[in-house]
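Anyone? Bumping this.
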Amino acid sequence: MTGQVVVSSQGSMVTISVHGRFDFNVHKEFRDAYETALKNDQLENFVIDFQPTEYIDSSALGMLLILRERIGSKARIKLTRCNKEIRSTLDISNFNKLFDIQ
Amino acid sequence: MSKSLIGNRFFAQHTWAIALGLAALGVEIFYPSLMTGVVGLLVVSAAWAFSSAHVVRQKEAQEAVRQAEVSNTANACELTLSEISVEVDQQLDLARNELGQIHALLRQAIRSLTESFTGVESSARGETEIVKSLLETISETASIDGQRTNFKSFSDETTTILNFMVTSILDVSKGSMELVHSLDDMLTQTSAVGAMLNDIKEITDQTNLLALNAAIEAARAGDAGRGFAVVADEVRKLSRKTSQFSEQIRKQMTDTQKSMSEASAIAQAMATKDMNIALNSKKKVDDMMVEVAVMNRTMSAKLAQVEGITEDIGVQVSKAVTNLQFEDMVTQVIAHINQRIDSLGMLVKVLDSGVRSKQTGCADDIACDWLPHLQQLLAEARTAFEQSEKKAVSQKNLAVGDVELF
């Protein structure tokens, strides 16, 4: 279902994925998801799994930047399994310098 | 003359003398006496002298005839030799002229060809320069802000602008999303106020109810409860006022929430930018740079080809010009021919001067003896011919460009 935000956590790692379009409409769920995950003190690895994501726009990029600021030095953020277009968008935004893209 | 022939002529010329001599001998044998002998001897001697003189006269006559013949022939020869000399001189002069013409034609042609070839080469070089400057011009774009740039710096500019644009988009998106988060928080807080207003409503409802009960109790107490009834009435009024204020607050909250929604929508519009435009621009710039690189490589290759061809032309022209340097050799060969002509002319003049000196009568014995003189001159001429022949032979063996040193 598009717009669905799925969270899974395993010990010190949390994985969030957005299904379909990652845009302004999911902003509330996305924020709720990571705010909840940040309550875990043992958190070390934060993973955004783009496999079910088809499209991102600039609002998604804004949200990721806010997330990065919010987490600070508490944990590392990985962006994984991006498709070609999403990868190009992340590259043109120089996100490879800010996030661990795999 | 053979010995037998000489013998025959001897006998033929002195026949009479011999016959008389034999006769005298016969007489002497048969009639030996001194007188006969002496007479016989005298007769024989006389006969001998007579026949000898006769022979001598014959010879002289023959000699004179022969000399006359020779003289005639010699005159005829001299005349013919003079004529030949004149003819040969004429032909030799013509030959000299024609050699001169050949030389002049060759010189002119060589000069012309050398100029043409050199002209071709400088034209080829000129073309190469034009091609070079043409390729350099193609590598540059038109002026940007009055500065000539090339494709590379143009693409760098574009990439910088692109990066700036992306950064701007990200800044606006991030700020907008932060704004949205703040609005969400405010929404939560205003919702809390709403909950509190509900509590207030409950309280006012309760208060209203209590005041109503108080009024009823006051009415039951009669006059003693009249004062209490007034108080209860006032409490009800206050309670209604509180309700009204509560409603106004609720209305304000609703309006505030509406404004926040509008702000949120505006923030959404600002935050939402499709990144494809930026992606496409970047791709276009990248593609253009690849094409430019290919074009530059192609042009460099073509330029190298053109330069190569120009080099080839240069080499071929060099060869041609070098091959044209045979004028020196031709000049020398023509000089040799001229020498031969001069030698021939000289020979003829010797012949002619020899004939003339004989005609005018010579005081000098040697000059008169012009046949040995002529033979000597011929020998000298032959030696001279052999000398120049050796030189001409070695001339053929020289490589192009070599010149014999005088």
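Late reply, but here is one note on the structure posted above: The interface with chain B takes residues 23-24, 27-28, 31, 56-59, 61-63, 65-66, 85, 88-89, 92-94 of chain A (CB under 8 Å).
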